[in-house]
Specification:
The protein is of the alpha+beta class. It is built from 14 helices and seven strands. α5 packs antiparallel against α7 and α13 runs antiparallel to α14. The protein is globular, with a radius of gyration of 26 Å.
Length: about 475
């Protein structure tokens, strides 16, 4: 075990141009050794949230001299900052203990960091364990991380020290993050597609942990659940092509996590409906105020449970399993006989087959529309979600952006209209729960709100038939 004291100074322009471009520029000094000028940015490789591109060069002092970098790196930085000056923003002061763990032909550095972010008079504590693959097989990195998580109940954190420092400077909190668009190249294969989709959905999931941990923004819970649904949809489409038990296990775990986050999302939806629409009316019952208070109390409990879930060992291990699957390309081993498709089949061919299958499923489940039971409508809505996600996954392959956007719009509108009935069911269930647990007379307020929901359902029903007809008439852009 080696022990060192690290002082790291972070630099940027007055308007934080490097940070806005996803770049960190810093100078680090370890004990009494020479300073090192460092450049970090998000990696374009499949490591996703777990990978960073890093360049380091010796520095004679604690001033950032870009000429010390290779010409291309220096040019990249200059292109971003222009003639704007660089200035120190904050620094970290860390006591780092390191040890190298060797397995087979792999070496992993384990660093235990304790210290502070220092900004003016502020000192924000830091306590982290950082694992870095120095050489060898990347899969061993996730194996070791999983063992440590199990042994010490550790949870992942995807916010870097630099980003935490900038948030300290600006008194910022993390913001919810929507999914990045997937851009598949024309020559992409099924193998490329598996990697792109699973990496994209996992990145969206972990990117929203910080917003849930730090804020009360409803969008954080929503995006977490959307990410898990997208991940499950991706695993489903590949399960049919590449049958593998590991895919099934991950789908079930993603479903369990999404379900556990469900109450927080439902309380958010109910609160938004109550606050924005029914309570604005002059004739709302007095007990609506008591209902709002009780609703907020339940929401607070649900958010506390959601944060505990995200910070749990099980969710950390789930993420490490997905990332390990990506690193090992485990699906390649599923092809055990000639009857199964080749991974080198073009993504476009696979996309057409998948989109046809999901669209046919939607049409089949909606064949008796609008005379469907609540259960049948729920199944139809799930089929619509899978179709929508598959369109978003594969849309870039067909070079028809307007048609893709139009198609997604029709599917989304239909999905939302059908979901209105589900909102009523959930509202009734949650309002009954409020009345039974609080002991407050909320019957009038609940009846008022459910009456408003009923009118909302009635309006949705009027639009459903025309929306369904438009959907059936929409051209399949992939044909």
């Amino acid at each position: 075990m080696r022990v060192r004291r690290l002082r790291t100074i972070y630099f940027d322009t007055p308007s934080d141009d490097l940070r806005k471009s996803g770049i960190v520029l810093r100078i680090r000094k370890k004990d009494h050794t020479a300073a090192v000028l460092g450049f970090k940015s998000a990696s374009i490789k499949a490591g996703g949230s777990f990978a960073r591109k890093e360049v380091e060069v010796p520095s004679p002092d604690l001033q950032p001299n870009l000429a010390l970098f290779a010409k291309k790196t220096a040019a990249d930085v200059v292109r971003i900052i222009g003639d704007r000056p660089l200035e120190p923003k904050f620094e970290t002061q860390i006591n780092r203990q390191t040890i190298v763990v060797s397995r087979a032909n792999s070496c992993i550095e384990v660093a235990l960091d304790e210290g502070h972010i220092v900004y003016g008079e502020q000192r924000v504590p830091l306590s982290e364990i950082e694992l870095e693959l120095k050489s060898g097989d990347e899969a061993f990195l996730y194996d070791l991380a999983t063992e440590l998580a199990k042994e010490f109940s550790l949870s992942l954190d995807f916010v870097s020290k630099g980003e935490k420092g900038f948030r300290t400077c600006g008194k910022e909190s993390a913001a919810p993050v929507k999914a990045e668009s997937i851009r598949l190249k024309s020559g992409a294969t099924v193998d490329d597609t598996v990697t792109a989709i699973l990496a994209n959905t996992l990145a969206q999931f972990v990117a929203n942990w910080a917003a849930l941990r730090e804020t009360e923004r409803p969008e954080s819970i929503h995006q977490l659940r959307v990410a898990l649904r997208r991940l499950r949809s991706g695993l489903l489409m590949f399960k049919k092509v590449l049958p593998k038990g590991e895919f099934d296990d991950l789908r079930q775990e993603a479903k369990r996590i999404a379900s556990a986050l469900g109450p927080a999302r439902e309380w958010d939806v109910l609160r938004a409906s109550v606050e924005q629409m029914p309570l604005l009316r002059k004739n709302c019952p007095e007990s609506c105020e008591a209902l709002l208070t009780a609703l907020q109390d339940c929401r607070n409990i649900a958010y506390k449970d959601a944060r505990s879930l995200i910070n749990s060992r099980d969710v950390t291990i789930f993420v490490l399993k997905v990332q390990s699957l990506l690193t090992r390309r485990a699906w390649r081993k599923a092809l055990t006989n000639k009857k199964q498709p080749n991974l080198n089949v073009t993504a476009k061919k696979f996309a057409k087959r998948t989109l046809n299958k999901f669209s046919e499923r939607v049409l089949k489940r909606g064949s008796e529309f609008p005379d469907l039971s609540d259960e049948a409508r729920h199944k139809l809505r799930i089929a619509l979600k899978n179709l929508r996600y598959s369109v978003e996954f594969f849309g870039s392959l067909f070079n028809r952006p307007r048609k893709v956007t139009s198609y997604v719009g029709h599917v989304t509108k239909l999905q939302d209209l059908i979901g209105t009935q589900n909102d009523v069911v959930m509202a009734r269930e949650f309002l009954d729960k409020l009345s039974s647990t609080t002991g407050v007379g909320l019957e009038k307020a609940s009846g008022f709100i459910l009456g408003w929901y009923a009118s909302k359902v009635s309006a949705a029903e009027e639009s459903l038939c025309s929306s369904w007809k438009k959907f059936k008439q929409t051209d399949a852009f992939w044909d």
